[in-house]
Write a sequence for this structure.
C-alpha cells in the first residue's frame, strides 16, 4: 500500500499544472489572463514551499517516515512551479524583452526578492539527488537550509506586490513563520 | 505512363490562386517570425481604442467597499440600494445645496463619452460612459475665493458594503481634485454606461477623470466639498509615498514598487503584448497645460 503513496503525491502535485494548461487552451482565464497565470503559478509555488516545510515537523509529530520520503519531490515541485511563474513573467508578460525585465529586477524590490528566491532554488534543485547528498555530506544539510531563506523571500514577494495590506499574503507569511519557528530547538536554547 | 490519382490533382480554384496561396504562406510564416522577436512588437496590440466588453467593464472592478477581489464588486453590490440618493455640495461656497439624483438627471443632459481607463495596477479599458462635465454641476454653487480644491466623499454604509467592515482603507472613501482639474471639461459626472443606466457597482453617481489613474475617480459620492487646503485622499492616507494627490497617468514616473511604462488591455488574449502607457493617458493635448511648469516627479 505505502509504495503507492509517492506516485500518488506526484500525480496530485501535477494537478495545478494540468488545470492551468486547460484554462489557457479553453480560454477560462478571465479578462486579464496573463495576470491570472502569473498569480496562479506564484501561489502554487508558495503552497509547495509550505508543504515542503511542513514535512519535517510532521515527521517529528507523527513519527511516520513517509513525510521525509516525499519531501524531495515536493521541493522539486517548488522549483517547477517557480520556474513556470518566472517563465510566465519573462516570456508571456514581457515577451523576453530583457531591458524592462532587467530594470524591474534591479529597481523593484518585490521582483528582486522573487528573482533572488528563484536563483537560490537552482543549487537546491541540482543537489537534490541521492548521489549529491552523499557527495556533499555535512554540507548538504547546510546548503538545503537555504529553503528557509527562499520561503521568507517568497512571502515578502507576495506582500510587496499587493496594493494595500491584503489578507492572503499575510496568511502565507504567518504560515511560513510558524513552520520556521517549529524548527527552532527551544530545549537546546533554554538549557544553555 | 504513371497514373495520377484524382485526389492528387490540385483543384482548379486553388491552382488559379496558387500565387496568392504561396504569398499568404510566406506572409503567415513571416509574421510569426516577426512577432516572435520581442523588441519589434512592444506596441503592436490590437487597436487600443476598441471598446471593452460590457461584461468585462462590469465584472472586473476595484471597489474595496465591496471586497478586494476584482469580481467582488459585481457580486456584492447586487443588494446595494441606490435610491433615494442625495448629494450635498458644500464647504467654501456662498450657499450650500443638496440635490437628489432625480433633480440631477433632470437638470443635465448626458452624452456618450468614450474614455480610456488606466488602473494604477497596470491594466486598461476603453469605456463608453454616459455623462456630463462636472463643471456644470459645480456651477450650481458660487465658491468663495478661499476655494482651491474640491473634495469628494463617498458613502459610508458597512451594513450594505461588506468591505467597509475591514480597515482596508480609511473609510469613507475620499478623493480630491484641484479646482481647475475639477472644472476641466473632461472631468465627467457619470450617469450611464453603454447607453444604459449605471449598474450597481457604479451607481448612482460617480466621477471619471480620464487622464488620472482609476482610483481618483470616486464612486457612490454623497458629498462634494470646496476646500482651501489640499485634501488627503484615502489612498494618500494608506501610503503617501506610493499614491500622490495628482496621480496623473505618467509612464515616466513609476509606482515605487512596480513600473508604469506599459499596460495590459483588458479582454485581450493570453498572447497579446503589453502596450506602452501614454502620458496623461493620451489626453495630454487637453490637460497638459494644467500642469505647466510643475515637476511631475515631485507632484506625482
Amino acid at each position: 500500500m505505502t509504495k503507492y503513496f509517492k506516485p500518488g503525491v506526484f500525480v496530485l502535485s501535477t494537478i495545478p499544472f494540468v488545470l492551468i494548461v486547460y484554462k489557457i487552451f479553453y480560454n477560462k482565464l478571465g479578462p486579464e489572463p496573463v495576470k491570472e497565470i502569473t498569480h496562479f503559478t506564484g501561489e502554487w509555488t508558495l503552497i509547495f514551499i509550505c508543504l515542503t516545510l511542513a514535512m519535517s515537523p510532521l515527521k517529528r509529530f507523527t513519527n511516520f517516515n513517509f513525510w521525509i520520503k516525499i519531501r524531495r519531490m515536493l521541493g522539486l515541485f517548488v522549483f517547477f512551479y517557480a520556474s513556470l511563474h518566472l517563465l510566465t513573467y519573462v516570456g508571456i508578460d514581457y515577451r523576453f524583452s530583457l531591458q524592462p525585465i532587467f530594470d524591474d529586477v534591479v529597481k523593484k524590490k518585490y521582483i528582486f526578492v522573487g528573482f533572488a528566491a528563484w536563483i537560490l532554488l537552482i543549487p537546491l534543485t541540482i543537489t537534490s539527488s541521492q548521489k549529491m547528498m552523499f557527495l556533499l555530506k555535512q554540507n548538504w544539510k547546510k546548503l538545503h537550509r537555504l529553503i528557509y531563506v527562499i520561503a521568507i523571500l517568497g512571502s515578502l514577494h507576495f506582500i510587496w506586490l499587493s496594493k494595500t495590506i491584503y489578507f492572503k499574503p499575510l496568511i502565507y507569511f504567518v504560515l511560513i513563520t510558524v513552520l520556521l519557528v517549529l524548527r527552532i530547538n527551544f530545549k537546546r536554547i533554554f538549557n544553555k | 505512363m504513371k497514373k495520377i490519382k484524382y485526389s492528387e490533382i490540385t483543384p482548379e480554384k486553388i491552382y488559379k490562386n496558387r500565387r496568392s496561396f504561396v504569398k499568404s504562406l510566406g506572409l503567415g510564416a513571416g509574421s510569426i517570425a516577426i512577432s516572435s522577436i520581442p523588441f519589434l512588437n512592444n506596441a503592436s496590440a490590437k487597436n487600443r481604442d476598441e471598446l471593452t466588453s460590457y461584461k468585462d467593464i462590469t465584472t472586473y472592478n476595484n471597489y474595496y467597499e465591496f471586497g478586494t477581489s476584482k469580481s467582488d464588486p459585481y457580486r456584492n453590490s447586487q443588494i446595494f440600494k441606490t435610491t433615494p440618493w442625495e448629494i450635498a455640495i458644500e464647504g467654501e461656497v456662498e450657499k450650500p445645496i443638496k440635490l437628489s439624483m432625480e433633480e440631477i438627471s433632470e437638470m443635465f443632459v448626458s452624452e456618450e463619452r468614450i474614455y480610456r481607463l488606466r488602473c494604477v495596477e497596470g491594466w486598461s479599458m476603453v469605456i463608453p460612459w454616459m455623462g456630463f462635465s462636472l463643471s456644470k454641476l459645480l456651477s450650481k454653487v458660487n465658491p468663495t475665493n478661499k476655494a482651491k480644491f474640491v473634495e469628494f466623499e463617498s458613502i459610508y454604509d458597512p451594513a450594505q458594503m461588506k468591505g467597509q467592515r475591514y480597515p482596508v482603507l480609511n473609510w469613507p472613501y475620499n478623493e480630491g481634485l484641484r479646482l481647475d482639474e475639477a472644472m476641466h471639461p473632461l472631468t465627467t459626472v457619470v450617469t450611464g454606461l453603454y447607453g444604459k443606466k449605471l449598474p450597481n457597482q457604479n451607481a448612482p453617481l460617480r466621477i471619471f477623470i480620464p487622464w488620472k489613474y482609476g482610483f481618483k475617480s470616486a464612486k457612490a459620492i454623497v458629498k462634494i466639498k470646496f476646500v482651501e487646503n489640499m485634501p488627503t485622499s484615502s489612498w494618500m492616507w494608506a501610503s503617501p509615498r506610493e499614491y500622490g494627490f495628482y496621480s496623473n497617468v505618467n509612464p515616466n514616473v513609476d509606482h515605487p514598487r512596480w513600473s508604469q511604462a506599459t499596460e495590459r488591455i483588458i479582454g485581450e488574449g493570453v498572447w497579446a503584448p503589453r502596450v506602452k502607457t501614454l502620458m496623461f493617458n493620451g489626453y495630454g493635448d487637453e490637460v497638459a497645460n494644467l500642469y505647466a511648469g510643475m515637476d511631475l516627479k515631485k507632484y506625482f
